Amino acid sequence: MESFIAIDFDARIVAELSQIAGCLETHAHGGRFEPPENYHLTLLYLNELEETEAAIERLDRIYLDSFELRLNRLGFFANADDHVLWVDVKRELTELRGLQQAIDQAMAGLYAPYDQAPFCPHITLAYGDAFDKEWEQMASACPVPASSFTVTSFHLYEVMRTPAGRRFRKRKTFLLDRGRSHGE
């Protein structure tokens, strides 16, 4: 099954991302905007994962402290399939990269790497060819609030193909700070 590991967001951050996407839609000439329930920050794309139970066992051994991230700015890049309009994050990026590396190491040998691109943390809001000409204008019209959020967990997701497009189903949630109080 097509799978990935990611961080999701609380209702407040999803609402702010939805407001940004709504603003972008009013300035965009086309594009496919992600529904709010699809917002996430991918830590590792697994492509086709055959050994789900083995993956869960390995991921369940990751013990790290929770950390803070903050929405930062809009960005744009082209990948092999499409053009992507996204929001990146900042703040405790060392901790975020540590989590991503721990997941990557835990999953070694269980999946075939999809690509060798370096980890570039972002939240995809939309896909579309027109963005390469419009994204700077859209970025200036649609500011990103500097909203902070605490990362306390990560999730193993399964990609579901539906008539409305791709939707993501959580297979398992992995808590950070297990067995410790947040004050330690």
From TrEMBL:
SUPFAM superfamilies reported for this sequence: LigT-like
Catalyzed reactions: a 3'-end 2',3'-cyclophospho-ribonucleotide-RNA + H2O = a 3'-end 2'-phospho-ribonucleotide-RNA + H(+)
Motif (HXTX 1): 40-43
List of catalytic residues: 40 (proton donor), 122 (proton acceptor)
EC number(s) recorded for this UniProt protein: 3.1.4.58
Motif range (HXTX 2): 122-125
Pfam families per record: 2_5_RNA_ligase2
Organism domain of life: Bacteria
InterPro entries hit by this protein: Cyclic_Pdiesterase, RNA_CPDase
Keywords on record: Hydrolase
Family recorded in the similarity comment: Belongs to the 2H phosphoesterase superfamily. ThpR family.
Its job: Hydrolyzes RNA 2',3'-cyclic phosphodiester to an RNA 2'-phosphomonoester.
Protein's UniProt name: RNA 2',3'-cyclic phosphodiesterase
Organism, as annotated: Paenibacillus glycinis
Lineage: Bacteria, Bacillati, Bacillota, Bacilli, Bacillales
GN (gene name): thpR
